[in-house]
C-alpha cells in the first residue's frame, strides 16, 4: 500500500507532464498558419534547404512556407529579369514536391511597389525598365548612407505607369504556376516613395488611395485564378499616432488605406522590438492577420501568447481573423543554416533562437 502511495505522486507528475505537452501541441496546431518566411535558396543550397524542411520544419508542424523569390527564378515570359544565377523550373518542382510530402503550403513572394532597390543597387525591374521608376530624378549614390538628402531607402515603381502591370502580372502568374501556389505574397512593405510630387502620373494624388489602388489591382488579378493576396502590414499602420515610426508603420499617410483595401487579403504583421498588439487592430478592420517575429525570443514568445489569447477571447466572427505566427528570416539560406546548426556563432537573440523558441 505504501508503495502504491509512493508511486501515486510520480504517476500524477508524469500525467501532468503529458497533459502539459498535449496542451502545447494542441495550441500550436490550433493556429491555422504556422509559418516560416525566408529567401528562396540559390541552386547550390537547394538540397540543404530541402533537408532542413524535412528535418526541422515538418516535425514542428510548419504548414506555410513563404519564399522570397523575387528574380531568383528562370522566368520564361521575361528572361531579361532573371538573376544571373537562378532556380530552374525543375529545381522549383523538387522543392514543391518536398513541401507537398509534408503538407506545407508554399507562397512565393516578389517584392512589388517598393523595395525595387537596396543601398546603391537598383534591382532587376527598374534596371531593365527604368521608365517604371517613381522617382527617376533620385540618382543612386556611389556610396549609400542613411539618412540622406533624397530620403532614399528603396526605390518604388510607379503604380500608375500604363505598362508596369503587364510586366508585373506576367511575373506573378508565372511564379504562381511554377510553385503551384494558391496565394502570392507581394511584399509592399516600407514604401517610402509613393505619389511623388514630380511624378507626372502620381503627383498630387492621395498616397493612401494610390497604395490601396495597387493592392486592389494585384488582388483582382490574383482572384481571376482563385489565388489570394498576402502583404506586409506596416504601411497600414499610423506611425505617428502609435509612436511606431517610419519602419514598422507609415509616416507618409498610407495608413488610411486600411479602410480602402479589400477584406480578403492576408496581413503579415511584423514587429521585431516589441510585442505590439496590432493584430487586434487589423482583425477589427475585418482583415486576416499573422504575427511575424524575427530575432528576439522573448518578444516572439509574448507575441505567441498574445495570439493564443486573441483567439481564445475573440467572438465567433473575429476568431478566424487571428491566423497565427510566421517566423521571418532576413539572411540568405546558407547563412541561416550555418547559424541554425551552430556552424557560425549566434547570440541569445538570433533568428534561429527565435524560431526555436516559438516552434518548439
Automatic annotation (TrEMBL):
Residues 1-22 form the signal peptide. The keyword Signal applies. SUPFAM superfamilies: (Trans)glycosidases (SSF51445). One of its GO terms (biological process) is glycosaminoglycan metabolic process. Residues 84-293 form the Glycoside hydrolase family 20 catalytic domain. This is beta-N-acetylhexosaminidase. It catalyses: Hydrolysis of terminal non-reducing N-acetyl-D-hexosamine residues in N-acetyl-beta-D-hexosaminides. GO terms for cellular component: membrane. Belongs to the glycosyl hydrolase 20 family. One of its GO terms (molecular function) is beta-N-acetylhexosaminidase activity. The keyword Hydrolase applies. It is an enzyme of class 3 (hydrolase). Its EC number is 3.2.1.52. Keywords: Hydrolase, Signal. Pfam families: Glyco_hydro_20 (PF00728).
Amino acid at each position: 500500500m505504501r508503495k502504491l502511495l509512493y508511486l501515486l505522486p510520480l504517476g500524477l507528475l508524469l500525467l501532468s507532464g503529458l497533459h502539459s505537452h498535449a496542451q502545447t501541441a494542441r495550441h500550436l496546431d490550433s493556429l491555422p498558419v504556422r509559418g516560416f518566411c525566408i529567401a528562396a535558396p540559390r541552386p547550390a543550397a537547394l538540397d540543404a534547404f530541402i533537408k532542413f524542411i524535412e528535418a526541422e520544419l515538418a516535425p514542428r508542424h510548419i504548414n506555410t512556407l513563404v519564399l522570397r523569390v523575387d528574380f531568383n527564378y528562370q522566368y520564361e515570359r521575361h528572361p531579361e529579369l532573371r538573376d544571373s544565377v537562378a532556380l530552374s523550373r525543375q529545381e522549383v518542382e523538387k522543392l514543391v514536391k518536398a513541401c507537398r510530402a509534408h503538407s506545407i503550403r508554399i507562397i512565393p513572394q516578389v517584392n512589388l511597389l517598393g523595395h525595387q532597390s537596396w543601398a546603391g543597387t537598383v534591382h532587376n525591374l527598374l534596371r531593365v525598365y527604368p521608365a517604371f521608376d517613381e522617382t527617376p530624378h533620385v540618382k543612386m549614390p556611389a556610396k549609400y548612407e542613411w539618412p540622406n538628402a533624397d530620403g532614399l531607402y528603396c526605390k518604388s515603381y510607379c503604380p500608375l505607369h500604363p505598362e508596369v502591370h503587364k510586366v508585373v502580372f506576367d511575373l506573378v502568374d508565372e511564379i504562381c504556376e511554377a510553385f503551384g501556389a494558391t496565394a502570392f505574397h507581394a511584399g509592399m512593405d516600407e514604401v517610402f516613395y509613393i505619389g511623388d510630387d514630380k511624378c507626372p502620373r502620381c503627383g498630387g494624388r492621395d498616397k493612401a488611395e494610390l497604395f490601396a489602388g495597387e493592392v486592389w489591382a494585384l488582388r483582382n488579378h490574383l482572384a481571376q485564378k482563385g489565388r489570394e493576396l498576402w502583404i506586409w502590414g506596416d504601411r497600414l499602420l499610423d506611425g505617428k499616432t502609435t509612436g511606431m515610426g517610419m519602419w514598422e508603420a507609415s509616416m507618409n499617410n498610407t495608413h488610411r488605406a486600411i479602410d480602402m483595401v479589400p477584406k480578403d487579403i492576408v496581413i503579415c504583421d511584423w514587429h521585431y522590438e516589441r510585442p505590439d498588439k496590432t493584430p487586434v487592430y487589423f482583425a477589427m478592420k475585418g482583415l486576416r492577420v499573422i504575427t511575424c517575429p524575427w530575432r528576439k525570443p522573448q518578444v516572439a514568445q509574448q507575441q505567441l501568447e498574445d495570439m493564443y489569447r486573441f483567439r481564445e477571447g475573440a467572438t465567433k466572427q473575429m476568431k478566424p481573423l487571428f491566423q497565427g505566427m510566421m517566423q521571418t528570416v532576413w539572411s540568405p539560406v546558407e547563412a541561416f543554416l550555418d547559424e541554425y546548426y551552430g556552424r557560425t556563432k549566434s547570440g541569445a537573440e538570433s533568428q534561429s533562437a527565435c524560431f526555436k523558441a516559438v516552434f518548439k
